[in-house]
Predict the structure.
Amino acid sequence: MLTDREPGRYLRQVALFGEEAQERLASARVVIVGAGGLGCPVALYLAAAGIGEVRLVDGDVVDKTNLNRQVLHGDRDIGRPKVESAAEKLRAQNPEITVIATYAAVDDGNAATLVGGADLIVDATDNYRVRYTLNRVALDAHVPLIHGAVRGFDGQATTIIPGRTACLECIIPIAPPEEGATPVVGTTPGIIGLIQANEAIKYITGTGDLLTNRLLIWDGRAATMTTLPVERQEECSACGSGRCSRR
Amino acid sequence: MQVRVRAFARLREAIGGDLTLEVPEGATMSRLLAAVGETSDQAGEALFEESGELRGYVILMHNGRRVRRAATGTLALADGDEVALFPPVAGG
């Protein structure tokens, strides 16, 4: 596989984790749900790292107010589906990978199909309704889910390995209220998105310690990161013994 | 006795940073949360519903361990304890 590719593209990271790890990246299929503030940096850096198949799912079109943070989209993309705009930039960044753009909003009815066949799901959404749907689909399919969320200068991220770690509903059983237009500076989803992309690369290559059973909290005002320990909840309605009551 | 409070996200903005609060000996987590809420209107709003109930989504930690909402009324704190409060964020 590596011989088919232009030499040198992955030289610096192969030097870091080896050719076998690069092969794993090349054969990995990652679904990124959301092509906005989080989805843009996640997708760009996973494409650059040589993830073999990057699938983007989003049902929105680019709006001018997105441009302070959704860095794959530019002025000329306003009105285009975000997944199309993003896919074009990803293909230009790395023509060696497959980029699939799915222009659809994820809901309970289509989630399992939209993320089907993925080795990894990245939660780059902006609401807990879809996040909880992805959490359940990830649990059902035994596919890891990398969660991220942002507001203002604050962000959070965690990695969920179904059956082994706290799931999203163990950690956040009650969703915080939705805001109309969440205030945010672009660097916050940039930082959290790159933490998510870093988790994806680590998971696929088997490198380092994942953010499992830990909730990372980024405070951009103070420029500090903290991780809070979290654990599986026996009564969790998504992954615990309490799940039967909701299903 | 003194309890250290680490606040994150909107709650940190509301109370302006970490706090060390003086609470009566044997005070419960509920008592401490009320004291945090009393530091300012914004802090109260970040922690409590209009009904006075603790906002359900706020993650509560006591000396590095998660505290369930149901346990806040009975969990007794000790001098030097650390409580962390994190209201999760939702945007993307």
User: Anything to note?
Assistant: Chain B has three helices and five strands. The mean pLDDT of chain B is 95. The two ends of chain B are 40 Å apart (CA to CA). Chain B has one domain: 2-86.
